Amino acid sequence: MSYSLVLNSGSSSIKFQLVDPASHAQDEPFASGLVEQIGEDSGRVTLKHQGDKHVVEAPIPDHSVGLKLAFDLMREHGCGIEDVDISAVGHRVVHGGLVFSQPVILTDEVISMVRDLIPLAPLHNPANIDGIEVAQSLLPDIPHVGVFDTGFFHSLPPAAALYAINNEVAGEYGVRRYGFHGTSHEYVSQHVPALLDKPADVVNQITLHLGNGASCAAIRGGLAIDTSMGLTPLAGLVMGTRSGDIDPGIVFHLARQANMSIDEIDELLNRKSGVKGIAGVNDFRVLRERIEEGDDDAWLAYNIYIHQLRRYIGSYMVALGRVDAITFTAGVGENDKFVRADALENLEWFGIKIDPERNELPNDGPREISADDSQVKVFVVPTNEELAIARYADQLAKNS
Ligand code: ADP
C-alpha cells in the first residue's frame, strides 16, 4: 500500500498526515500529527498512530527542525517515512491567485509563482513555501504537489468575482474575490450527485463549510458560481473569531475615531471578532452550554451567526434559480444540529424542510437530513481536506 504525506504549514505550525488515498472520509489516517509553537521558546510535536498519542517537547526554531522532529517521532513509533511507501507529498497552499486553478507538481518555477502571490496572502503563502522547501529537501525523490484553497473558485463568473471598486486600482493590486476552502467545497459537493442519484452536470447546490473558519458556495453543474470569502478569508459568514462581512467604512471609522493602526484593526477583525468577539468563546459546544445557562451574549452571538448564514443561503438560492441540495460540512456543520435546524427553519415555502429526527442522529458519514417531501434535499457530508489533498497528490504523482 502506498501513502500520501499531506502537509499544511502555517507560520508557527505544521499539520501532517500519512493518508492512504484509497481510504474513506471517516477512516483514521495511518498517522497524523502537529508541530506547534515553531519559533517560540518551547515547541511541541504530537503524533497519533494506531490509537496512541505520542508527544515530544523541545524548542523548534524553524520549520526544518519541526519537520525533522516529526519524522523522528514517526520513525520511533513504527510509521517512519522510510518504513512506508510514500508515493507523493501533498501541500496545502492557501493562495493560488489567478494562476492556479488545479493542483500542480511543485517545480522550482511553480514555487517561484507561489512566491509572487505573497502580496495576496502575506501571512499564509510564505509559511506554505517554507513547508514545501523543507519537505523537498528531506524527501527529494518524491513528487511534491500543491493543492490550492482558491483553485475551485476559478470558475466564478466576473459579476461574482469582481468588486464594484475602481477597476484600475483593482487590476493593479489583484483586488477581486478569490474564495477559500475550495478543496472542501469541491470534495463535499462531489458526493452530492450520487446522493441525489443525478448526473453531476445537472445538479445545482449550496455547500456550507461551517468550521472555525466558515464559508459557503453556490455550485452549478460542478462549477462554483459564487462564494462568501473574498480577496481574503475574512469575508462572508460570521466565523469563530472573524467578523465576516462588515461595512468597510468601519475600518475608516476605527482608524479615525479609535486611532487604531491597520495591524490593530486586522487583529480585531480576524482574531477578536466573530462569535468570540461577542460571546467570549468560539467553540460551538461551549456556546451551546452558555446559551442553555441563559447567557445573553452567547444567544446574541448565535443569532447574528444564524442571521448572516440565512442571508447567504437566500442569496444563493436566487443566484442558482433552482436548488437541488444544501449540504452542511466541517466541525459545526457536521455536529451542531441546532445550527442546521435554525439555518433552514421556516423555509417550507422555498421547498426546504428538515426532518427533525434525521437531523438529530449523530454524525456517521454522508446522510440526508431533509424530510421525504422536501423539494430541496439537505445533506450532512463530512469533509476531509487532507484526504482530498492526498488523492490529488497521488494522482498527479502517478501521471508525472
Ligand atoms: P477548522 O478546520 O476551521 O479549525 P473544524 O472544521 O475542525 O475547524 O471545526 C472546529 C469547530 O467545530 C469547533 O471550534 C467547534 O466550534 C465546532 N464543533 C466541533 N465539534 C462540535 C460538536 N460536537 N458540536 C458543535 N460544534 C462542534
What descriptors fit this protein?
globular, Nucleotidyltransferase, domain 5, 15 helices, single chain, six-stranded mixed sheet, alpha/beta, eight-stranded mixed sheet, 14 strands, 400 residues, binds adenosine-5'-diphosphate, 2 domains
Give the neighbour order of strands across the main sheet.
5-4-3-2-1-6-8-7
Instruction: Please give the CATH class of the largest domain.
Output: Alpha Beta
The main sheet comes to: 8 strands, mixed
What is the beta-strand fraction? 15-25%
Helix fraction by DSSP (H/I, runs of at least 4): 25-40%
Describe this structure as you would to a colleague:
The protein has 400 residues and is α/β, with parallel strands linked by helices. The protein folds into 2 domains: 147 residues, 2-Layer Sandwich (Nucleotidyltransferase, domain 5), CATH 3.30.420.40; 204 residues, ATPase, nucleotide binding domain (Nucleotidyltransferase, domain 5), CATH 3.30.420.40. Helix content is 39%, strand content 20%. An 8-stranded mixed beta sheet has the order 5-4-3-2-1-6-8-7, with helices on both faces. A 6-stranded mixed beta sheet has the order 11-10-9-12-14-13, with helices on both faces. A hairpin with a 6-residue loop joins β3 and β4. α1 crosses α3. The two termini are 19 Å apart.
